[in-house]
Specification:
Layout: E1 3-21, E2 27-46, E3 50-54, H1 66-77, E4 84-89, H2 100-115, H3 122-129, H4 136-141, E5 144-148, E6 153-156, E7 164-170, H5 177-182, H6 195-201, E8 214-215, H7 218-224, H8 227-237, E9 242-245, E10 252-256, H9 259-267, E11 274-280
Parallel strand pairs: 1-8, 3-4
Antiparallel strand pairs: 1-2, 2-4, 2-5, 5-6, 7-10, 7-11, 9-10
Helix pairs in contact: 1-2, 2-3
């Protein structure tokens, strides 16, 4: 097999709540994760050892890269000497709360599973993925899922109806996920998402899910970076029917009724120094 291509889709959090601190030091979370169409391309071909290349010069391609770590983990698990070149064509914003690195790692696990003819089931890949990061198990299949534990305990949900949205990330702004979780304080939460009701209304989609959405991590990231609140307000003012920060940030997404409204929302952000994309929610991989 000469070459394998995988698509690595970004994710957003339709709802993110923190239930408490775990004995292992992680936070117990309850969240609805959703794949969106913005994606990276991962191309696997023959190489020497594990080689990573990328279209972005400012992304490390060494052993600290999640794609590299995923390849090394799978090779070690299956007792394979890896000789692969992994090319990352990145379009997902970096350090954005969109699981770009996690999705690339998941794509590497899926792709090498095919490239090496391992025939591992998705649940086996998810178990390996959990050793690398909390978002990576979700990214193996994606779609719409309830995530609990530290994010690795997944329940597949019926795909929500296709929904248009705008993504916006302040250019050059990076937020440390570890810092956000470390500084989270339940006492600052005014509105927490109602995850079980959000799950119940997902089939309807659209404005039906809005009352139950929310992200408690906004209480940490927005005070430190007020531009996020300004972007949310601009999206709502331009016609988005809901806007929320994804993950620990700093990316904001705005849900819209149609593509034309999404274009107006994107246009309304020209006064901000942001990376933007118009995309839709997407369903789970077959």
């Amino acid at each position: 097999m000469k070459q394998i291509k995988e698509t690595a889709y970004a994710k957003i959090n339709l709802g993110l709540d923190i239930l408490g601190k775990r004995e292992d030091g992680y936070h117990e979370v309850s969240m609805i994760m959703q794949s969106v169409g913005l994606s990276d391309e991962v191309v696997i071909s023959k190489g020497n050892g594990i080689q990573i290349s990328c279209n972005l010069h400012n992304l490390s391609c060494g052993p600290d890269n999640l794609a590299y770590r995923a390849a090394a983990l799978l090779a070690g698990h299956c007792d394979i000497i890896p000789n692969v070149h992994i090319a990352l064509n990145k379009k997902i914003f970096l350090a954005a709360g969109l699981a770009g690195g996690s999705s690339d790692a998941a794509a590497v696990l899926r792709g090498l599973n095919r490239y090496w003819g391992l025939n591992l089931e998705n649940y086996e890949l998810e178990q390996l993925a959990a050793q690398l990061g909390s978002d990576i198990p979700f990214c193996i299949e994606g779609g719409t899922m309830l995530a609990t534990g530290r994010g690795e305990v997944l329940i597949k949900l019926e795909d929500m109806p296709e929904t248009w949205l705008v993504l916006a990330k302040p250019r050059g702004l990076e937020v440390s996920t570890a810092w956000v979780y470390k500084n989270f304080n339940h006492g600052r939460v005014v509105h927490a998402p109602c995850i079980w009701q959000l799950e119940a209304y997902l089939r309807e989609g659209g404005k039906a899910i809005v009352p139950y959405m929310g992200n408690v991590l906004e209480t940490v990231t927005i005070p430190a970076h007020p531009v996020i609140a300004s972007i949310k307000a601009a999206m709502l003012g331009a016609g988005a029917y809901y806007s929320l920060m994804s993950g620990s940030g700093p990316t904001v997404f705005g849900l819209t009724a149609d593509k034309e409204t999404a274009k107006r929302v994107q246009q309304a952000l020209t006064d901000f120094d942001v990376e933007t994309a118009i995309t839709t929610t997407i369903g789970r991989r077959n």
